[in-house]
Amino acid sequence: MRKLVLFLTIMFMTMSYGQETKQIPQINVNGEGKVKVAPDQVCISATVETKGNNAKDVKKQNDEKIDAVLKFIKKMNLPAADFKTKQVALNPQYDYEKKKTSYNATQTVEIVLKDLSKYDELMEGLVQQGINRIDRVSFESSKLTSLQSEARKLAMKDAKAKAEDYVSVLGQKVGKAYVISDNSQIYHPQPMYAAMKSMAADNAESANETLAIGEIEITANVSVSFILD
User: What UniProt keywords are attached to this protein's entry (predicted)?
Assistant: First the structure.
């Protein structure tokens, strides 16, 4: 009886192993989809930084500068939802050589500008009102989600076209997709643009062009395994 049970166990294991190792005729290809679009908004992160020997005075000066910056932004008629302050800090800094403590106050304002024609005016005004550190300028598209979807579809079409090219000479056909892997990387596109003009320029009416926005390129990459019919 034990020999019979052992024999049946080995037989079932052999059958299962045979099923697991059965090869499925397939082809593995990579596909890429690209979509280009002009950005329609710019995200700006700018900071007011104030230093001094008296904590109270440093904080007061920094608050006054931020207040002036916010009033300027409001005068440009930006919607309240498109700007906000964050990262308020007041930190002591000890100088071991002079054996003195100074203070550093910072406050950051984040802005989404949806009218790119106001970019130069906004940047100049921010600096004039007290912004002394531009942390980030990123040109983006408000339609990024739909553009990413379009790029993914193009990547799948590209993968299928490649598979069909390869198997066409073999007299076979591309069947259903067996495995799909998304190899795309999430990133914040920043097209090349010229450096903005000096904020200290004497001629504020200068007509020189300072911004070359270019295009954002949205890319999707996939790996697909198709079953061969």
Answer: Signal
In a domain, 63, yes or no: yes
Q: Note whether 150 and 50 are within 8 A (CB).
A: no
- At residue 147, the pLDDT reads 93
Along the chain (229 residues), what's the average pLDDT of each consecutive run of 10 residues?
A: 49 53 86 93 95 94 96 96 93 90 96 95 95 92 93 97 94 93 72 40 44 79 95
Does 166 fall in a domain?
A: yes
The secondary structure of residue 143, as a DSSP letter, is T
Q: Please, which residues have CB within 8 angstroms of residue 108's CB and are 6 or more apart in sequence?
A: 45, 46, 47, 48, 85, 86, 87, 135
Q: Give, rounded to a whole angstrom, the gap between the first and last alpha carbons of the chain.
A: 46
pTM over 0.85: no
For residue 171, what are the contacts with CB-CB under 8 A and spacing of at least 6? none
The confidence score (pLDDT) of residue 191 equals 46
Number of domains in the chain: 2
d(CA 215, CA 35): 10
* Domain around 152: 23-38+142-229
Q: How is residue 139 written in tokens? A: 């040109």
- Mark whether 100 and 149 lie in a shared domain: no
